[in-house]
Amino acid sequence: MTSFRALVAREINGQFVRSVEERQVEALPEGEALIRVRYSSLNYKDALSATGHRGVTRAFPHTPGIDAAGEVVESSVVDFAPGDKVLVTGYDLGMNTPGGFGQFIRVPAHWLVGLPVGLTLKESMGYGTGGLTAALSVHHLIEAGATPDSGDVLITGATGGVGSLSVAILAQMGFRVVAVTGKVSEANFLKRLGASEVIDRRELDDNSGQPILSARWAAGIDTVGGNILSTLIKTTQYRGVITCCGLVASPELNTTVFPFILRGVKLIGIDSVLCPMDLRLKIWQKIAVDWKVNALNDIIAECELEDLNVQINRILSGQMRGRVVVNLG
Ligand SMILES: NC(=O)c1ccc[n+]([C@@H]2O[C@H](COP(=O)([O-])OP(=O)(O)OC[C@H]3O[C@@H](n4cnc5c(N)ncnc54)[C@H](OP(=O)(O)O)[C@@H]3O)[C@@H](O)[C@H]2O)c1
Q1: 270 CA: nearest ligand 1 atom
Q2: Which of 99, 102, 145, 325 has a 20 to 30 Å separation from 25 between CA atoms?
Q3: Residue 257 CB neighbour total at 10 angstroms
Q4: How far is the CA of 113 from the centre of ligand 1 (A)?
């Protein structure tokens, strides 16, 4: 039997508790590839899984971690061989399949992405699902016609994982980025990433009842949902484009059709979990080369399995700044 360390969430008397435990490789689910995980990262969804949200994870005990990067140990397919460096994000990893907060995972081979040239395993998890989502959002803005000449791009939840990487990628591409945050004390951090302007989240929380307001933004990346997204839609310029990926403020979206039928505003949903492999590979290639973030070291903090409880509480209370990479040794 080969044992390894993993963070395990258990339900005890109706409460969810998490601790680092010894697990057995032989008890992992069947799959074509066994991976020795070197790095993972913390995403909002991991915190939901770790605290018992049944919409993410149905059965406990469970090891969360929707991201993992490491080396192939065993493979039953020709595309991947022992020693290959790979990463996995999304699919069912960390949801109902034991995830990257353990030193080993066993998964279907079609979930694997070969580590792109230009990224280390640690850097790949600096991006992880948050970075893939930020880059997919940027990709869809550009596909819909946004250019640095179109005007300001608004990014909500700007200090968070998806938000901070979106700020950095777009600023490096020459866009004028306006960052919306609840943490105005982090304005310097956002400016170091390239934000031209930082505004308080309360400025984007319109309660006037008006269906449409003065047009301010050529484009937007929304990571929070709720009334902030409603306000962004009302204040987007003629033929502007918005992507939407998250719900930390609220899963609700109250809007009228007016911004869409009077201004031709486009709202594009972003899903990184089942993102098709051809697009996934194209976006990872962008992340590794053209869109590689100069300020990545400023965005990522590293922790170990034992530190995850503290970080899980931080992300659930909206206190996250940038991305947390988990070192699994
Ligand atoms: N669709 C997908 O494939 C996909 C992929 C990845 C993530 N997501 C979703 O995207 C969202 C962001 O993920 P993340 O990993 O970036 O999370 P995160 O690191 O926790 O960042 C979220 C940020 O949102 C802001 N925020 C928190 N609570 C808020 C509230 N009540 N009202 C308004 N803003 C609030 C905070 O930034 P400020 O303090 O700067 O405002 C926070 O740092 C989550 O809902 C996540 O589930 C979806």
Answers
A1: 1
A2: 325
A3: 8
A4: 25
Question: Would you give the DSSP letter of residue 31?
Answer: -
Amino acid identity of residue 316, one-letter, is L
User: Ligand 1 pocket test: which of 44, 181, 201 has the largest number of ligand atoms within 8 Å of its C-beta?
Assistant: 44
- 200 Cβ below 6 A of ligand 1: no
Cα 51–Cα 244–Cα 235 angle in degrees, nearest 5: 130
DSSP H/E element including 232: helix 226-234
Q: How far apart are CA 288 and CA 302, in angstroms?
A: 20
Q: What is the pLDDT of residues 206-265, one digit of tens each?
A: 999 999 999 999 999 999 999 999 999 999 999 999 999 999 999 999 999 999 999 999
223 lines ligand 1 (CB under 6 A): yes
Q: What is the set of domains in the chain, with CATH numbers?
A: 3-115+295-327 (3.90.180.10), 130-269 (3.40.50.720)
- When pLDDT is cut at 50, 70 and 90, the band that residue 320 belongs to is confident
